C-alpha cells in the first residue's frame, strides 16, 4: 500500500517513514499542509497519516479539503492535541481515526491495517492466498506448497498487489507506483527483474505479460 505521511517534525517524520517502510508500506513524507494537498493531486494513495499542527495550512484544513474533493482516502490523525474537542473536530472534519502522541508503533500499525481493511476489499482478511501460495499480510511471511519462501521487500509488495486482485491487468506505471516512493531511483528494467524473481521463486507462469498493456496474475494456474 502507498501511504502519505504528513508530519512537520523532521526527526519523528524520518523515524515513522522508516518504521512504516519496514512494514512494507511505500511511504511518501511531506512536512506541510500545502505539500500534502499537492501530493494528493499528483498521486494515488491508499492511506494517510496526518499531523494537525502543520505550518501554514493545518491538518484540519487539509482533511476538510480532501473531503470537499471527495477523495476516498482513509486518514488517521496522529497528533499531540489531546482534548475531546480536538478529537471531535478532527473526526468531524473527515478523519477516520485519531491516535495521540506519544504512541506505540504496534498500535499505529494495527490501526492502519484496520483502515486498509475497511477501504480495500482485497484486505478484508490478514491472509492472501492463490493456489499453493499463501501471504500473511501482518507477519509478511510467504509460503509455497507449505514451504517458506524468502522475498525481498519489493518482491513482497509486488506479490501482494497481484494476489489482492487476481486476473486484473496492471500497467507498468501502476506497479511502479506500488513499489517506489518519491526520490527512490527506478532502474528501467527494475520491474521486469522483480517479476522474473517471483516467477523463479514460485513458477514461471505465475505472472502473465499482457503485451502493450502490463502484467497480471495468471489465474489459469502453474504452467
Question: Which key phrases capture this entry?
Answer:
223 residues; alpha/beta; 5-stranded parallel sheet; 8 helices; 12 strands
Secondary structure: elements and pairs:
Blueprint: E1 2-6, H1 10-22, E2 26-30, H2 33-42, E3 47-50, H3 59-68, E4 75-79, H4 84-93, E5 97-100, H5 105-119, E6 127-130, E7 133-136, E8 142-144, E9 147-149, H6 153-164, E10 170-171, H7 172-179, H8 190-201, E11 207-210, E12 214-217
Parallel strand pairs: 1-2, 1-3, 3-4, 4-5
Antiparallel strand pairs: 6-7, 7-8, 8-9, 10-12, 11-12
Helix pairs in contact: 2-3, 6-8
Describe this structure in words.
- The structure is a single chain.
- The chain is α/β, with parallel strands linked by helices and 223 residues long.
- The strands form three sheets. Strands 2-1-3-4-5 form a five-stranded parallel sheet, with helices on both faces.
- The longest helix has 15 residues.
- It is elongated.
- The protein is built from eight helices and twelve strands.
Low-confidence parts: none
Run of helices and strands: EHEHEHEHEHEEEEHEHHEE
Q: Could you tell me the strand content as a percent range?
A: 15-25%
From the alpha carbons, calculate the radius of gyration and give it in angstroms.
Answer: 18 Å
Name the overall outline.
elongated
Alpha carbon gap, first and last residue: 29 Å
Mean pLDDT: 89
Main beta sheet strand tally, sense and closure: 5 strands, parallel
The share of residues in helices is 40-55%
Give me the number of helical elements. Answer: 8
Strand order of the largest sheet: 2-1-3-4-5
Assembly state (oligomeric): single chain
Instruction: Tell me the total number of β-strands.
Output: 12
The helix-and-strand class reads: alpha/beta
Amino acid at each position: 500500500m502507498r501511504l502519505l505521511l504528513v508530519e512537520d517534525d523532521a526527526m519523528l517524520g524520518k523515524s515513522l517513514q522508516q518504521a512504516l517502510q519496514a512494514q512494507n508500506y511505500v511511504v511518501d513524507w511531506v512536512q506541510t499542509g500545502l505539500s500534502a494537498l499537492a501530493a494528493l493531486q499528483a498521486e494515488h494513495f491508499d492511506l494517510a497519516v496526518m499531523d494537525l499542527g502543520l505550518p501554514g495550512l493545518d491538518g484540519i484544513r487539509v482533511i476538510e479539503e480532501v473531503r470537499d474533493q471527495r477523495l476516498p482516502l482513509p486518514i488517521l490523525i496522529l497528533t499531540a492535541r489531546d482534548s475531546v474537542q480536538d478529537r471531535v473536530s478532527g473526526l468531524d472534519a473527515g478523519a477516520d481515526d485519531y491516535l495521540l502522541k506519544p504512541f506505540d508503533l504496534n498500535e499505529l500499525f494495527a490501526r492502519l491495517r484496520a483502515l486498509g481493511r475497511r477501504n480495500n476489499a482485497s484486505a478484508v482478511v490478514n491472509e492472501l492466498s492463490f493456489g499453493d501460495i499463501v501471504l500473511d499480510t501482518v507477519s509478511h511471511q510467504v509460503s509455497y506448497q507449505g514451504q517458506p519462501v524468502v522475498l525481498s521487500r519489493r518482491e513482497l509488495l509486488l506479490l501482494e498487489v497481484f494476489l489482492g486482485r487476481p486476473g486484473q491487468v496492471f500497467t507498468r506505471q501502476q506497479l511502479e507506483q506500488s513499489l517506489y516512493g518519491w526520490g527512490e531511483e527506478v532502474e528501467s528494467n527494475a520491474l521486469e527483474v522483480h517479476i522474473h524473481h517471483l516467477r523463479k521463486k514460485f513458477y514461471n507462469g505465475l505472472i502473465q505479460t499482457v503485451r502493450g498493456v502490463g502484467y497480471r496474475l495468471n489465474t489459469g494456474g502453474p504452467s
